[in-house]
Amino acid sequence: MAGVARPEAIPPAAELVRRAISGKRIDVGARLFEGILLFSLLAALAILVTLLADVVGRGWVVYAERGTEFLTSGNSRDPAQAGVGQALFGSLALMVIVAIVSFPLGIGAAIYLEEYARDTPFTRFITVNIRNLAGVPAIVYGLLGLAVFVIALQDLTGPNSNGRSIISGGLTLAIVVLPIVIITASEALRAVPGTIREAALGVGATRWETIRSHVLPYAAPGILTGTILAMARAFGEAAPLIMVGGAASFVAAGDANLIDQLFGPYMAMPTLVYNWAGLPNQDFRALTAAGIMALLTTILLVNAIAIVLRNRYARRW
Amino acid sequence: MVRTMFLAAAGVSVVISALIILSLVGEAWNFISHVDPANLRTDGWFPRRDMFDIATIVAGTLAVAGVGLLVAIPLGLGAAIYLAEYASPRLRGTLKPILEMLAAVPSVVLGFFALVVISPTLVQPVCDVLTGGSPIFSMGAAGLAVGILITPLVASIAEDAMYAVPNSLREAAFGLGARKRATSLRIVIPAAVSGIMAAIIVGASRAIGETMIVAMAAGGTGGSLFQLNPCQPGQTMTAAITALATGSDRVRGADLAYPSLFFVGILLFAFTLVLNMISERFVRRVRLRY
Fold first, then answer.
1. What stretch of H or E contains B224?
2. How far away is chain B from the Cα of A2, in angstroms, using its nearest Cα?
3. DSSP letter at A191?
């Protein structure tokens, strides 16, 4: 008797469930749905590949003909002589200023918000304020830089260049990335468990000693990744620089010393790309692509380093 | 002592916000108080000819951001659902960096891409069929590139929201006999809908604030007539600001062109601020629920 199938005794609902669970037929709709989803990701990949292939296809010839000379020579009206040397210098100088200004301020603010501040209306106001600052379009920061650094503080930022100097550009970019640095550093600090702090406080460390010797070492990889990504963002940012005069088409190279250069007119990689892309002379198309190759190589390399660092030092508590 | 130093660092963000508002409001007020109200309703945006038709640049902004969202919402959400629900952890580890790399591409590069690839191979042929021709500079080309720019952003916020949906909900659905697709569409997405809304709103805010792509590929340097057709060139609020700033070496003078920059800036600031605050509210709702 046992083992004899009696299908007519199986209640309809249970039978439906049995069929649903053990059904072997291929569900076309489900496959199609999964395929469409995968397509959106593959489309993103295809766009990225097309973009890289197109840029390399256009720009390769410049490196093949001129080699590294393209990376060192200054800008020129003659496409056969124009290079990205001055723009690379400008961008590097900007990055140094961004790092000097935004790292201490950003990490300091994050330490205050995560380690010292109590949950008061003032703290909440600062946190909301920082989140909103991160969403402000870069061009608005450009207007801020134009009004404050270029015009109001002209005597300090560039007395001989109408305020349109590397100093103004660097300070503007530092303000653009400051909210990003604060937010990523805060997240890194928040990921360090409270027990680590309690262990330090329990043996009599002051709050600052706890932070310096216990919290910061564990949060360092996260903070580092965030700041590296913020730098990559600043390196590619053109909109605010255009507002504060970083789009000078020609900079007299001369033998100006470093200080004079910092207070003088300048160009940066992204603004040079913008300038070249707008020129009607078709010969500049290849140069634009070659400039983009240099810009993208730097940015993607820095991003890859940040991703590797993050994966390598990621710690699960 | 140390605490005070860190407090000062945190206070800098408040100072920056105050500076933004002060620097924008001063010149914007200068503009509003001197402009002839009749010049705010003209045929187009030509600031050097005292034609400050705000509707023109708002329409351009909406056209570009609209095209961008038409690209970014399906692509971004599709990618997010795949990553959160379908991809194995290993596949996820290889696919996610693609989006991160795409997110790292600077907007000047996408502007160039829009000009030399998207416009001639995609926008112009389509517009030839639909509306009988399109110039190389068009809001459609800029909009598509803006869509590419914000897709990774939309995908990552939406994926975070779906990832946060507790597994017990999925298991309950599976236990009732639902399949993967029904679980994704009827359980996970409704549970994560606040986060998905936030992703779309943040994407819209970024699209409205995007500058370089529009300045390079949408045309309308120097000014533009009222235009909503994506096949035609047009001008957005952001491009109006850069066009004025690059048009002449010094954006200063007796006329109202210079203060109009700041008026447009404050408008842009207000638009994005409102969108960001709405999205913040949506995100908070996700956090409260799970």
1. strand B224-225
2. 28
3. T
Cα–Cα distance, A157 to A287 (Å, whole number): 32
Rounded CA separation A201/A47 (Å): 52
Distance of CA B124 to the CA centre of its chain: 23
Residue listed under structure tokens 């330490």: A111
Q: How far apart are the C-alpha atoms of A95 and A295, rounded to whole Å?
A: 13
| ipTM rounded to 2 decimals | 0.90
Least confident residue range of A37-51, A259-273, A279-293, B15-29: A259-273
According to DSSP, residue A316 is labeled: -
The C-alpha atoms of residue B16 and residue A317 are separated, in whole angstroms, by 36
Structure tokens at A92: 């590097």
CA B256 to chain CA centroid, Å, is 28
B119, B133 Cβ separation under 8 angstroms: no
| Low-confidence spans in chain B with pLDDT less than 50 | 248-251
Burial of residue A130, with CB atoms counted within 10 A of its CB: 0-12 exposed, 13-18 middle, 19 or more buried? buried
Q: Count the residues in chain A.
A: 317
Q: What gap in Å lies between CA B206 and CA B4, rounded to an integer?
A: 35
Reported confidence tier of residue A48, pLDDT bands at 50, 70, 90: very high
**How far from the centroid of its chain's Cα atoms is residue B127's Cα?**
23
* Alpha-carbon span A201 to A206, nearest angstrom: 7
> Which residue in the set A125, A140, A242 is minimally distant from B245, CB to CB?
A242
For residues A105-130, average pLDDT: 92
The SS3 of residue A258 is helix
- C-alpha to C-alpha distances, A193 to A27, A114, A188, A314, nearest whole angstrom: 46, 12, 11, 14
Cα–Cα distances (Å) from A310 to A191, A219, A304, in that order, read 13, 11, 10
Look at strands B51-52 and B44-46 and give their pairing: antiparallel
- Dig out the tokens for B171 from the structure: 């298991």
Q: Are B204 and A54 in contact (CB under 8 A)?
A: no
Nearest by CB to A54, from B102, B113, B277: name it.
B113
Contact A300 B101 (CB under 8 A): yes
Q: Which residue of B has its CA nearest to A271?
A: B108
Taking a C-beta distance cutoff of 8 angstroms, is the pair A196, A317 a contact?
Answer: no
Please say whether the beta carbons of B263 and B26 come within 8 A.
no
pTM of the model: 0.88
A277–B99: do the CB atoms touch at under 8 Å?
no
| Cβ <8 Å between B24 and A51 | no
Collapse the DSSP code of B44 into the 3-class scheme (helix H, G, I; strand E, B; otherwise coil) and give the result: strand
Q: Which of A202, A203, A221, A201 is nearest to A211 (CA)?
A: A201
- Taking CA–CA distances from B240, the nearest residue in chain A reads A139
Which residue type, as a one-letter code, is found at position A309? Answer: L
Task: Specify the DSSP element, H or E, that contains B51.
Answer: strand B51-52
